[in-house]
Specification:
The protein has 396 residues and is mostly helical. It is 64% helix and 2% strand. The chain has 13 helices and two strands, in the order H-H-H-H-H-H-E-E-H-H-H-H-H-H-H. It is elongated, with a radius of gyration of 28 Å.
Length: 396
């Protein structure tokens, strides 16, 4: 019994954003504590590092009078990546961690995991913690972040809008001090935080898929309509701030590329629709693991209820007609046997769906993912058309 209690506590204490080299580095720098992520403070610090420092380094060019969008302070791409995205991704850490912790705790508190499967669940959590703390994973995230930063900056420096990052001379274009900071600090910080968030969610996804393979105490007639697993359906909403930040970066980049073109409702519909599918697919992966146990629950319950219904209805038939019309004389329960009516259980099992992810359950997430693109759309499309488009995508 003591061993089971320890395992339950271990499962309940799963913390998605603790551990790992970057967490330890931030702790040593005093940016957070082991018991407090200090997300607001760190968000301000990282935004200042990514956006404010290049502004200062590029003075006075960063404040040069130019048309809107052509100066550092009015560049929507920089605001999208270095202010809104970085700020939102860091702020989301506390929200994600607490909500995932509650969701995982539910499995042990309900309890949905059988006592025989609890040791396997504990091992799955320990494996997830090791992956969460992986030095290799964060090193790979950092390498990819620098690779993406070099590629992005080389592409962007070809234009004239990033005059603050590169200066022109007879010998060609040269990266300025502000440009080097963006290349070595700002862009890698943005990509690293996003990729680290992706990795941490992948770890959570693998943990959920491991739990889905365990023996679970599911019941088809559970009032939540999902066998007792409906509490998981809205877990993606924990990532709505994270996805809002990522959407800001993508929408800002999209807005810059179509600024010289005419944005049509059809184009905006395609972009927003594809992005929404990507976002929902991101969260469908872990939840899809529960389709198999729910489908098996549905089939087994319907079979057992159907068998019981046959016994009960044949018993009623004998009471009324003194015999069974078909297969009379076969072994049957006694006439006075109390056979419960399985009709409600059969109907509940028949209505049981295998999918946990639904558009209604993740409506807040979907709305936050589409909001930045809707704002970009408002620059060229009427409010009524954009609102109608968003409603269709959210309620489709």
């Amino acid at each position: 019994m003591a061993g089971e209690q320890a395992q339950i506590v271990e499962i309940a204490d799963y913390l998605a954003y603790r551990g790992g080299p970057f967490f330890e580095l931030q702790k040593r720098l005093g940016l957070l504590r082991r018991d407090a992520l200090n997300a607001r403070r760190r968000a301000l610090i990282y935004v200042a590092i990514a956006w404010l420092v290049p502004l200062v380094l590029a003075l006075p060019d960063s404040l040069r009078l130019r048309p809107f969008g052509m100066t550092y302070v009015t560049d929507v791409g920089l605001w999208g990546r270095f202010v809104l995205a970085i700020g939102a991704v860091v702020l989301a850490e506390e929200q994600v961690e607490e909500r995932l912790r509650v969701k995982l705790r539910h499995f042990a508190a309900a309890p949905l995991i059988t006592s025989e499967s609890m040791p396997l669940a504990a091992r799955a959590v320990n494996r997830a913690l090791r992956l969460r703390n992986s030095r290799i994973a964060e090193a790979v995230c950092l390498l990819i972040a620098y690779a993406l930063s070099v590629w992005a900056l080389r592409y962007e420096l070809k234009g004239d809008s990033y005059f603050w990052a590169a200066s022109s001379s007879e010998a060609g274009r040269h990266i300025t001090l502000a440009g080097w900071w963006a290349l070595l600090v700002s862009l890698p910080l943005f990509w690293f935080l996003v990729l680290r968030g992706f990795w941490r969610h992948f770890v959570w996804a693998q943990l959920l898929r491991a739990i889905a393979r365990l023996e679970l105490r599911l019941v088809a007639s559970h009032p939540d309509g999902k066998g007792g697993l409906a509490f998981l359906a809205d877990y993606p909403n924990a990532y709505m701030t994270f996805m809002f930040g990522l959407s800001c970066a993508l929408a800002a980049s999209f807005g810059q590329h179509i600024s010289a073109e005419t944005l049509s409702v059809k184009m905006l519909t395609t972009v927003m629709g594809v992005w929404l599918v990507v976002v929902l697919g991101f969260f469908a992966y872990p939840l899809s693991a529960f389709a198999r146990p729910l489908r098996r629950l549905r089939e087994d319950t319907m079979l057992a209820a159907a068998a019981l219904a046959t016994q009960r209805q044949r018993q009623d038939e004998r009471k009324i007609l003194s015999r069974n019309i078909v297969a009379d004389g076969t072994a049957e329960p006694p006439a006075d046997a109390d056979i419960p009516d399985p009709a409600k259980l059969f109907e509940a099992a028949r209505k049981l769906k295998g999918g946990l992810l639904s558009r209604s359950a993740v409506l807040p997430l979907s709305a936050m993912a589409l909001l930045p693109f809707a704002i970009v759309g408002l620059t060229q499309i009427s409010f009524e058309d954009v609102l109608s488009l968003v409603k269709k995508l959210l309620l489709l």
